Amino acid sequence: MRIFSGGAADRRSRAEDAVDTHPSAPIPVLGPGVGETIRVPLGETGFSVFPLMLGAAEFGWNVDLPTSHLLLDRYLEFGGNAVHTADGYSGGRSEHIVGQWLRSRGSRDRVVLSVRIGTHADNPGLDSVNLVRAVEASLTRLGTDRIDVLYLDASLDETSDLEDTLATVEWLREAGKISAVGGFRFTPERLVEARILASAGYPRLDVLDEPYNLVRRDAFEGDLRLVAAAQSLAVTPSHALEHGFLSGRHRSRSEVVGVRGQQIRSHLNRRGIRVLRALDIVAAELAVPVAAVSIAWLLAQRTVVAPIVNAFAPAHIEELMQGAGVSLSRTQLAELSRAGD
């Protein structure tokens, strides 16, 4: 198994020597200093994070509380420090689980905590009243006094006045309830509007979450990426493994069931199989899991800082974290991108 060291810039070229470890030992994904875990700036938020965020979308839904805590423990053990949840995940149960873990482990000051709000049934949308209520409710469920990065979810709210929303964000920040702000599913036009408002003194968006991966590229690879780059936004793409399809574990329509099974089956076509074959080849060349290659491809993309990845078992954490240490050659990147075209 080859795990490469290096910072954000080094991931786009071959890095330093690999290190073999016992399979049960933490994978040494290290930065330039001896014993220094990789940290990259999260845009202009002032936070530095491991280049992979652990998502909590499955907590309280497909992953129970004990397993959720094991996943979080393993993530920190491997050097991770960025946890992402949302008020709409499992109707708020995800936040409860993350909050219980933060309290029981005393880990709040070791974690960059990001929360997406705007889809909880009690406080939907981004209008001023619901925004304040949603943040207060999330803080209560999480059992903390602050959210490090607040993602504004625009996927279900295209009518709220952005100026009012950002004015409310400013009040929340001045009250110490949030530190930085990002957007989810913001259109290029709305990002431009947000930057114009920021130039007038309103809080600026520093982070962008747009679902993006090897088989879901059209929405991001266009005007949205151009605007994100022009605004120096840190992109933290969710659905990094496309509901598990890009982990390489699911190759047959008959073995996947339920809602997630339907999503995976939609990719078991000629294009999807072509992508899996390309991933298999690179994974074999580097002696790393397919999931790690999928993450490494994302991290090699311009503006991407830290993909948001969900996991179901502690063993998945070990695979995913390797992605931050894998360096793909130009040829490998080109072959993977071509397979997904």
Quick structural summary:
With 341 residues, the chain is an alpha/beta fold. Helices cover 38% and strands 11% of the residues.
Radius of gyration: 19 Å
Average pLDDT rating: 87
How many domains in all? 1
Shape: globular
Enumerate the strands of the largest sheet in spatial order, edge to edge or round the barrel. 9-8-7-6-5-4-3-10
Q: Note the beta-strand portion.
A: 5-15%
Helix content: 25-40%
Query: What ranges have pLDDT less than 50 throughout 5 or more consecutive residues?
Result: 1-28
Can you tell me the CATH architecture?
A: Alpha-Beta Barrel
The biggest beta sheet reads: 8 strands, parallel
Q: What letter string, H or E per element, gives the SSE order?
A: EEEHEHEHEHEHEHEHHHEHH
CATH homologous superfamily (4th level) name: NADP-dependent oxidoreductase domain
State the CATH class.
Answer: Alpha Beta
Q: By helix and strand content, what is the structural category? A: alpha/beta
CATH topology, by name, is TIM Barrel
DSSP strand count: 10
- Alpha plus pi helix count: 11
Distance between the termini: 29 Å
Pfam families: Aldo_ket_red
InterPro entries: AKR_Detox_Biosynth (IPR050523), NAD(P)_OxRdtase_dom_sf (IPR036812), NADP_OxRdtase_dom (IPR023210)
Organism: Microbacterium soli
Protein name: Aldo/keto reductase
